[in-house]
Amino acid sequence: MPELPPELEREIFELAFKPNNRNVALKLTLCLVARRVQFWIDRLFYEMVTIAHQRNADKFLSIVHSNSKPAGYFTVVKRLCIIYGISGATARDILSACPSVEALGCWVDKNDSSWRDPDSGLFLLISRLPLRRLSIEASLFSSIPATLSSTWPSTLTHLDLFPLGKFPTSELSRLAHLPRLTHVCLHTNRNVGVGHVAMVCSNSPQLQVLILLGGSIYPPDSSDPHQHDSRIVVQDNWMKSFGPVEDWEASYLGLSDMWTRAEATVAQRVSPSTE
Q: In this predicted model, what pLDDT tens digit does every residue of 128-160 receive, in sequence order?
């Protein structure tokens, strides 16, 4: 039986695994085929890492420190989501091992002192990532340096902010220093108002989509803002069958997420009527 070219063989295995890359049983089965297949599948498996609790974090770091992978192996991690309950020190260790993350979710408690430790170097690590997408608590976003040695300001295109406390509109002025920023999401609560929307729009010259996630901030008797600015899209918090983690992972899996749904809404508004 003729052998397939290695490039084609690899593509076949990747196509079989990627849509189900959280399926550990499938991963183990495919890895038994051959050592080269294990290498391919492992790289795909670690492209997206979601740390949902401390047990996940401990397991991931034990693999990092076990030397079972080649040096620098975890540069394969491109999407990383760190969820509530993970300490700043643990997050720092994870980010230290994953210097090539392009999409980062930091869904953590802003009041956790370990995330505020000025000596931890955590936010300096984040500032050096080649981020394209960032989802983070609003005040923590303000803690990320944007200096000449920072990478993220020149690469970021999608920014998702959720305020868990006071959120001065002035903190959004730094969006003016993100030249590639095209998509912004604000989680609407009592800390977000009309002024925040105005600041996003005035400081983001390349803005294509602004999502107000969780409902409109405008009174029912006021004019609908998207009548005047087609880029503003109001979305319910999450679809009934789709939670925040699933939405975060969706684009990697080629599925619709809050961004693509908003883009579709904007496109529908600006397209000429067929009637």
A: 999 999 999 998 999 999 988 899 999 999 999
Same domain, 174 and 126: no
* Residues 53 and 59 sit within 8 Å (Cβ to Cβ): no
Strand-pair category, 158-162 with 133-137: parallel
Picking from 106, 180, 164, 163, the residue whose alpha carbon sits closest to that of residue 172 is 163
Which residue is associated with the tokens 């003729």?
2
Which 3 state secondary structure label does DSSP give 98? coil
Backbone dihedral angles phi then psi of residue 114, each to the nearest 5 degrees = -65, -25
How far, in Å, CA of 193 to CA of 228, rounded? 17
Phi, psi torsion values for 134, nearest 5 degrees: -140, 130
Query: Which SS3 state, helix, strand or coil, does residue 253 take?
Result: coil
Residues 88 and 41 in one domain: no
Residues in the chain: 275
* Cβ 91 vs Cβ 121: under 8 Å: no
Domain residues for the domain of 208 are 157-270
- Residue whose C-alpha is closest to residue 233's, from 263, 205, 206: 263
Domain co-membership, 257 together with 180: yes
pTM of the predicted structure, to 2 decimals: 0.85
In the block, tokens 């902010």 appear at 161
Domain stop point among 143, 177, 211: 143
- SS3 (DSSP) at 5: coil
Q: CA-to-CA distance for 136 and 81, rounded, in angstroms?
A: 10
Any residues with CB less than 8 A from the CB of 149 and at least 6 apart, and which? 127, 128
CA angle (60 as vertex; 59, 66 as ends), nearest 5? 85
DSSP category for residue 14: H
Total structural domains within the chain: 3
- Assign 1 a pLDDT band (cuts: 50, 70, 90): very low
